[in-house]
Specification:
By secondary structure, the chain is of the alpha/beta class.
Length: about 325
Amino acid sequence: MSQKKILLTRRFPAIAAQMLSEAGFSVSTRQTDEPMMHDELLQKAASHNGLLCTLSDKINGDFIRQNAHLDVISQFAVGYDNIDIAEANSQGIPVGYTPDVLTDATADTAFGLMIATSRKMFYLHKSIIAGNWTYFKPNSNLGVELKSKTLGIFGLGRIGAEMAKRCKGAYNMKVIYHNRNRNIEAEKALGATYVSFEELLANSDVLSLHCALNEQTKGLFNQKVFEKMKPSAIFINTARGLIHNEADMIEALNNGKIWGAGLDVTNPEPMKPDNPLLRMENVCILPHIGSATVETRSEMAKLAAQNIIGLYNKQGMQHVVNPEVLK
């Protein structure tokens, strides 16, 4: 095949460019971590055959129509709501993504946020920096214990199941969940119980989100939903920030509708440094680092590159969002 040109929109782990170069592609790599402005991305994509991008790149309908010549779009992420899949289908462009390899790293993040929130760890760490560690106060800085509590999972897929394993193994937590469809395999492995959405809200001591962002889940966790949760509940979101309404969450925390929140994703991202959530005692927030381990990011880079290589060498894309276009 004639040499194809692949644009990497960010400075991804070096293995991605290395694999593509060794496979015979001409690779253009952005040399900084700062994302391209949309106009620059449009301009550069026009002279390339394939694109390796990530969640913060706006691959909307207009972008795809202007770059209908692209053979492939490979996403460095498990999510792909930044890409107009319907328009990609219309233009016959396959979209790759990187599922599975993020599972353990993201589940670890959710598990860590649950523990940190339950013991107010982030807030108390900042109190030391502020010089507020003085003397023992028997009734201050009290967290809550997790042993034998009920874990609710919204979206019991691979990541949700790994979160449940951690909680069950470490704290003997009872596992309940709500999905569009029952996960019989997970029920057998974890002793998990399928419940309605209303039952999930009412009975979860910890409610952890592991669902996809789509039209059904966008903004789902709002004031009405938080009001149906236990006032002692901890809300964990390592999925996508747009699934929860942040203003409603702040109100729920301030009014005692829920006890605490642990977030790896926010709405919007990045979060502003004056956001009141950052100063709340029962809230722990991370800057969307669920996949941020050396091992996971390297595997994501390999898989994103392999999706491109597989398309061109006829082995096929290992993970493709819209396989129908390949037919």
